[in-house]
Amino acid sequence: MTLKNDRVAASEKDALRGGEASKSEGVKLKKELGLLDGVAIIVGVIIGAGIFVSPKGVLQNSGSVGLSLIIWVLSGLLSTIGALCYAELGTMIPKSGGDYAYISEAFGPLPAFLYLWVALFIIVPTGNAITALTFAQYILQPIWLTCEPPTEAIRLIAAVITCLLTVINCYNVKWATRVQDIFTGTKILALIIIIIAGLYALFAYGSPNFDRPMSGSTVEPGYIALAFYSGLFSYSGWNYLNFVTEELKDPYRNLPRAIWISMPTVTTIYVLANIAYVAVLSQDELLSSSAVAVTFGEKMLGVMSWIMPFSVACSTFGALNGAIFASSRLFFVGARQGHLPQAIALINVKRFTPIPSLVFLCIITLVLLIIKDIYVLINYLSFVEGLFTTFSVSGLLWLRFRKPDMERPIKINIIFPIIFFIICLFLVTFPCYVSPWEVSVGLIMIVSGIPMYFIFIYWQNKPRWIEKASETLNLLCARTFMCVLEDQPAA
User: Fold this and answer.
1) How many structural domains compose the chain?
2) Contact indicator for 344, 334 with CB cutoff of 8 Å
3) Which of 314, 324, 468, 488 is the most exposed place for a label (fewest CB within 10 A)?
4) Where does the chain cross the membrane (predicted)?
5) In the chain, count of helices (H) and strands (E)?
6) Distance between alpha carbon 193 and the CA centroid of its chain, in Å?
């Protein structure tokens, strides 16, 4: 890490800036994302492996089919309200970086750094690693047929696909967005097949799951909160377009329009897909299946059942691509603000992509792929993400009070952020007594960033060898990846 105002030798600074020539050319992230690209990023990141592989978390914690479907609807509604709150934040603070930029503006550098700290080492690379492993699992499954593919083969394929998508994102923004558009369409098509087959079965044969849909519903607030966690986890990604606001054409119009198109679409697809699942599979089959869509395909699609594992692979491929594209901008902005090594804030002079940030994210993801118990980290992610989302929306409320005259191209009714804040507070608080271990570990992960902040960010007169190491890293990345610092940070 490095201080925002590191001392850099004149020649090194010139190399990082790219000289006068690059200044005249305007080396910065380009606005290349249109409305369709924005919709593809939101839908493509939200619809990952979860809806195909394991939607049982909502059913398990809610206790009944009826309550689980209600929670799926409410989770989509809550995510839409959250996305609208972020639309106000994203147009009021038109910087890439999402939550990091909003928390920084509202509460200052330390809370923003703590979010960046947890996102950098836990939230983003763990999510990417899990998605890559799921892709590898389902792309290899047809080869091994009746047995599980070897763990080594799964990890190798996961590493290869992570590197491949990183290269695509480094090479060209348009390539990355085309990949996103294609695979978003593929996964929606697969879900439409599930929905049509399930609804046909429901109307043709009926389903005992709908005879007494509310039977067995839980009344424990803690378990209802955990059911919402599972539902909201499947909707996670609705804020990823905010990570790339600076690259979105006409963000004041396209950001809210992308949200209004994406969120109702995803909610409708999710609810209908779950209705299809419970129409075909028994409650026991749903709770015991490790891949619900595959089990569904085996019962309904016959010789065409191979479509489901293929669809899971396509879905995870697109979700991983979208996550790599968006989250790399989070770390780019963090470095631009001086909260990460300056090298991560460099932009390639030909491709106009943040190559060092993409490579850095790829390396951390590959390291996590080596860890045997990586899936354990998922247990702690929902609480941590929920906590920082609560911080962001509370920042919106705080800025309404502290800076009432701040320009707000989009200003939603105050009741929406208040509702969203109260529900987020409920979801963060109640699991504390149901899952105290996961909550405690999540808090430890966050607090561990405090000494890092004071040592590497707050401490002004650091030893010269730390600054020298930072300067060396900056210059090495600049020369290796043909990168320079951004000419002028977007306003």
Assistant:
1) 1
2) yes
3) 488
4) 33-53, 65-89, 110-133, 153-173, 185-203, 223-245, 257-280, 306-332, 352-371, 377-400, 412-433, 439-459
5) 23, 2
6) 26
